[in-house]
Amino acid sequence: MKRKLGRGVAVVGAGVGKFGAFPRHDSRDLFAQAFRELRASVDRGFDPAEVEALYLGNYSSDLFEHQGHLAPIVASWVGLTPRAALRVEDACASGGVALRQAVLAVASGLYDVVLVGGVERMTALPTEAVTDTLATAGDVLYEFSAGFTFPGFYAAMATAYAAKYGMPYEALFAVARKNHAHGALNDKAQFGMTIRAIMDRRMAKAREKGGPVPSWEDELDFLRDPGANPPVAWPLRLFDCSPITDGAAALLVVAEKVARRYTDRPLRVLGTGQASDACLYGRADLASLRAAREAAAQAYAMAGVTPDQIKLAEVHDCFTIAEVLAIEDLGLFPPGQGWRAAADGATSREGRIPVNTSGGLKAKGHPVGASGVAQVVELWKQMRGEAGPRQVARDVDLALAHNVGGTGQTCVVHILERG
Amino acid sequence: MVEREFTHASWAEFLAEGKLMGVRCRACGALSAVPRLVCPACRVEDLEWVELSGRGAVEGFTVIHVPPTPLAAAGYGRDRPYASAVVRLDEGPWITAQLVGVDPQRPESLRVGMRVRAEVVHQGEAVRLGFRPEG
Ligand SMILES: [Zn+2]
Q: Which CATH class is domain A9-126+243-418?
């Protein structure tokens, strides 16, 4: 059935903090930085006293920093008390789902002005504890006990996809190269460097130290080297994986009827969709995410648009294979063809459908609860022509964000139109 | 057959006894390799335990070099990886488990579609499900 929002909803402000490792910043500090950028982004200014509620995407402040009940703390840190504040958790889709909940609340008429946040502080824990925490987004009883880690889940999807469609594993290198090339143009990215620059820096460091200098011929040679790019969960290697990141993002979501109070250039939320799926062992196919296809179908139907009309997409590339699955599940490429897209240049900034111009989770970083919100911040910048050096040349009047939780047990898709 | 609650604890007890048990819906026949109280196919609450053959084929797999802490504590790590897989049992349902009797240092020796057979693995106090390549 075709669903519509009860009333129009618009995004009128967006901000994101620098992504990276910030040992001196807690979640509340990270969020406050994103909030400051959001505040500056509202064309006609905005008074935080107008905000009626905060929807905060956060996966696990409990485990990452031993802090539960995060939303009221964050609300108080930016002066929203006593407004309603709640944390929304759907693993790595927490941010996208927080946005969707805010959209539903505004569409219902309950609120006119809502702040959407996403935040995660992950680097305070050692890597093994981060691995454990992320793995709890799968089934602890039947998957974690079978030795699966988060990269392991996606690695299993990669082997299934490769077997089904004949993809050579090295095809995934192209996704990493493309997203690092985009990330190099994003001053908020954790890895604002191309893979070539990372490689050159390592060679220069080896030269400085007077040790043996690796003789990589090119980026492909570098990525093939198990010393430089070791396996994490074969066939996925280090450069197939998004990093461990601290970061936050924020959006100002309002009823369309009050949008002009804030800006003459709002983004209209044209479509929203969300779906769930069983854990990996409850699926029928490992080479596609059913929840993503379902969420996309809902969002396209609500928006009344088709995949070929989308001008730009931010998709959930927690691992390189995830981007391949995403662009197929979203209908941007036919099943079995997505693995060629990055190598062909189709998904680059200059390509037919630019994907992850921000650098994606791969290069920008993946503070899990913030990622879904940060994707929409990128759409905001690109659609308004404010993306700086990474601004795409084409006019982006229609764009899409795709945010996955866990191994695809949750997916949320949003389609935005420039009003 | 056996009167045992449809819980993970019961499933793990069966496994310790050397049996891979699943549940079957008496109404629609749907099979699940893990216990449930409600049939996910037809939502009827009329299930029974059934013993599974334990034979199946690999649907997807990985060799893990960065393990979670329980496996790191068991000695696995960057230089001592292990393999895990999603297995499609011959009766239809899927299940996740470690692969045993394979060489994790040679992932190219593993294949999607590879035939495997269930095996109970004792790791210290813990009892785990494993799958070993057939033949
Ligand atoms: Zn049934």
A: alpha beta
Is the bond into A307 cis (omega within 30 degrees of 0)? no
On whether both B14 and B36 belong to a single domain, the answer is: yes
Within 37-96 of B, beta carbons closer than 8 Å to A belong to 40, 59-69, 71-72, 78, 81-82, 84-86, 93-96
User: Which chain A residue has its CA at the smallest distance from B71's CA?
Assistant: A147
Q: How far apart are CA A73 and CA A62, in angstroms?
A: 13
Catalogue the active-site residues of A: 92, 366
Q: Taking CA atoms, what residue in A is nearest to B94?
A: A281
pLDDT, residue B1, reads 55
Q: Kindly state whether residues B59 and B125 are assigned to the same domain.
A: yes
Rounded CA gap, A365 and A367, in Å?
Answer: 6
Q: What ipTM did this prediction achieve?
A: 0.97
The pLDDT score that the predictor gives to residue A196 is 97
Is there a single domain that holds both residue B90 and residue B122? yes
With CB atoms and an 8 Å threshold, state whether B86 touches A286: yes
d(CA A211, CA B124) in angstroms, rounded, equals: 44
For residue A362, CA distances in Å to A8, A62, A314, A398, B49 come to: 33, 24, 12, 23, 44
Residues B73 and B111 in one domain: yes
Instruction: Using the predicted structure, report yes or no on whether residue A1 has a pLDDT greater than 90.
Output: no
B101 in the Ramachandran plot: left (φ > 0), alpha (ψ -120 to 50) or beta? left
Q: What is the domain range of residue B93?
A: 55-133
* Region A216-223 average pLDDT: 95
Same domain membership, residue B65 and residue B34 = no
- Residue A342 and residue A198: Cα distance in Å, rounded? 20
Count: domains in chain B: 2
- B124 and B107 inside one domain: yes
List chain B residues with CB under 8 Å of A147: 64, 67-68, 71, 82, 84, 98
User: Are residues B28 and B86 both part of a single domain?
Assistant: no
pLDDT at res. A334: 98
